[in-house]
Amino acid sequence: MGGDMAGAGWPTGAGWTWGAVALLLWQALVGVTIWLVLRAASRRSRDPGPRP
Predict the structure, then answer these.
(1) What is the 3-state secondary structure (H, E, C) of the chain?
(2) How far apart are CA 12 and CA 50, in angstroms?
(3) Where are the transmembrane segments (predicted)?
(4) Domain residue ranges in the chain
(5) pTM higher than 0.70 for the full model?
(6) Separation of alpha carbons 29 and 23, rounded Å
(7) How many angstroms separate the Cα of 44 from the Cα of each of 24, 32, 39, 40, 50?
(8) CA torsion through residues 34, 36, 39, 40, sign
(9) What does the pLDDT look like over 1-52, one tens digit per residue?
């Protein structure tokens, strides 16, 4: 029974691990994207364009 429970608990543990890894990767991707967009926007607003 102990081995049965361990076998049944393994997929859920792996699922939790992969879910956490995917969530961390997604948050990192979103954070980097937002940072790049904000950096580009601030640089664009700081640069005096060809406006008179």
Answers:
(1) CHHHHHHHHHHHHHHHHHHHHHHHHHHHHHHHHHHHHHHHHHHHHHCCCCCC
(2) 58
(3) 15-38
(4) 1-44
(5) no
(6) 10
(7) 30, 18, 8, 6, 12
(8) negative
(9) 445 545 555 555 667 788 888 999 999 999 999 999 999 988 877 766 666 6
Query: Any idea which residue has 């979103």 for tokens?
Result: 30
Q: What φ, ψ does residue 25 adopt, rounded to 5°?
A: -60, -40
> Cα angle vertex 29, ends 23, 22, to 5°?
20
Residue 21: phi, psi to the nearest 5?
-65, -45
Nearest-angstrom CA–CA distance, 7 and 32: 38
